[in-house]
Each structure stands twice: as C-alpha cells, then as structure tokens.
Amino acid sequence: MQIGIKKFFLVFFCVILGTLEQVKSEIHPDKVFTADSKKTGAFQRDGIIIGGDQAIHEVIVKDIRQAVNQGFERMVIDLETSFNGEPSPIERPPYYQLAVTPDERRLIITLWGGPKLQFKPNKVLNAFKKSAVVEKVLLFPKLEEGSWTFALELKVDASVEVFELSHPVRVIVDIRPKKS
Q1: Domains in the chain, start-ordered, CATH in brackets?
Q2: Considering the entire predicted model, what is its pTM?
Q3: What backbone phi and psi angles, to 5 degrees, belong to 142?
Q4: 60, β-bridge pairs
Q5: Peptide bond connecting 168 to the previous residue in cis, omega within 30 degrees of 0
Q6: pLDDT digits over 42-58, tens only?
Q7: Which of 15, 78, 79, 85 satisfies CB 3.0 to 4.6 Å to 62 for a cystine?
C-alpha cells in the first residue's frame, strides 16, 4: 500500500509540475480572462479564467455536479461559507482560477479562500462517469491550507465558459466540445 501512495504522489507532482511549467511558459495577457456574473456565450479554448473575491475565506465546497445541456456539458461547484462554525451566505465565490490547456485536454481548477471539502468524492466521480466530454475527474488532496486544486481530463478538444451565480453561490463551467 505504501508504494501505491508514493507512486500516486509522484504522478500527481509530475502532472502538476508539467502543467505549471507549460502554463508559466505560455501565459500571455491576451489569454487571461475574467469570469462573468451571468452566462454570456463567451467560450475560451486556451488560457486562464479568473474570478471570485480574494477577501472571502472559510469557504465550504458542498458539491461538484455535472449536467448535460444542448451543445455543452455543465459542471457546477456549489459553495457556501461559515461564520463561527455556522453556514453563512456569501455574495460571490472565493478567488479561483481555471486553466484551459487544449494540447493536454485538461481543465485545472484552483479555489482559494481556505476551502473545506464537504462533498462525497465517490458521488462526484460517479456523476461524471457517463460524460461524453470528461474522461476523468482528479480530486487532488489538499496540500495547502489556503487553496485546493482539482482537474478534469477531457475526452475531446473543448472550449469553456465560466461564470458565477449567487443565491446560492456557485461557479459554473460550461464545456463545449470542439466541432469537427
């Protein structure tokens, strides 16, 4: 069992380091986009999409859901916060980044705000099993107190639209497969 854990972390760090090196070497100001507060139809194929509020802390990730829509698949990240240990509403999600890497067919999502993970991992993994777009969901362990990263490996080249909704707060990622 110990060898399996070591192998997992070795693969995990190789994936992250490889992706970070590629992102670092290819980030240009014209490839950094800001998420909207509503659906606009502005899909991005390559780059980084940022959003949320850096002042928000103690965030709870309640669920990560998936749904099929006409022409795209939707991933929803359900969020809330706590104040003195009690659930408390927030107006916006915490700061987040979503990296779209078309050459690798991967989406990497990082949430800041000290996220606490309160979803059921097996439920999330099962939700994406029948996806026509998502090959695999990688729920990485929390390595830092202030942030958490997970990734979606895609079956096909795709573009994404990211936007935020409130009441309740959620981050929406619409994944549209590239038309052949």
Answers
A1: 29-177 (2.60.40.3500)
A2: 0.83
A3: -70, 120
A4: 80, 116
A5: yes
A6: 999 999 999 999 999 88
A7: 78
